[in-house]
Amino acid sequence: MTQKDITFVADFLTEHFNEAPELYNRKGKYFNVERVGQYLKDEDDELVSPPNTEGNQWFNFLKDSTHLKESPLLFPYYPEKSLHFVKRQMEGVIDQCLQKPADVIGKSVHQAVCMSLYKVSQSEDSTPQLFKLPYLWNDKTSNLHYVLFTILENSISKIHILRRHTDTSRSVSNGILAVEFGNFLNNSINESSDSRCYSCLDAHFYDDDTVTVVLKESVQQEGKERVLAQLPLS
């Protein structure tokens, strides 16, 4: 060992293992443990060397504030306890806060309808993502929920629109329908159906009555056309 190493160890022992008569009557050893390690022990015992909070701006601020001193919004401070103790206390409070909403929401949610959209293979590992672009819209005027989505394997030129009433006891006509774009932008009926076929890149509700879609030419060539289209729900 070098002299520097010996000095370092000696300084450590002098600082942390000096006799502390005030701790003689306490359980266990009566010298100061290393000050970082005491915070990490998973025990409920009080710290041997609690931190000195004198002059701490935050504690002084709380002490001088009549409104914040007893505020239930502030998590209590335990200067004599380890971080494990504080962590358990905080987890208990968070679990208590989340339990009631979880119970209420869980009891209020139930399945209103079940629709089979597509079938997948037995091996889930090899199943590609078929459900794309799910976009939700709530029409508060008519109390209707809408979901826009595409099914890749079914047809890339279709978007599907699912409509349900917010009151699950009521039903609306045309609960789900598909809009196919295909070659609807062809200039004449003589054009090849394969030459100007469009697929949906994205779709969102513009307002309660209109859907905005971004279309892309499906042919494999450079300079593919992009079309921004507004579709009335009617």
Automatic annotation (TrEMBL):
Keywords: Cell cycle, Cell division, Mitosis, Ubl conjugation pathway. One of its GO terms (cellular component) is anaphase-promoting complex. GO terms for biological process: anaphase-promoting complex-dependent catabolic process; cell division; protein K11-linked ubiquitination. Residues 136-234 form the Anaphase-promoting complex subunit 4 C-terminal half WD40 domain. Pfam families: WD40_APC4_C-half (PF23405). The keyword Cell division applies. This is APC4 protein. It comes from Phainopepla nitens. The lineage of its organism: Eukaryota, Metazoa, Chordata, Craniata, Vertebrata. The gene is Anapc4.
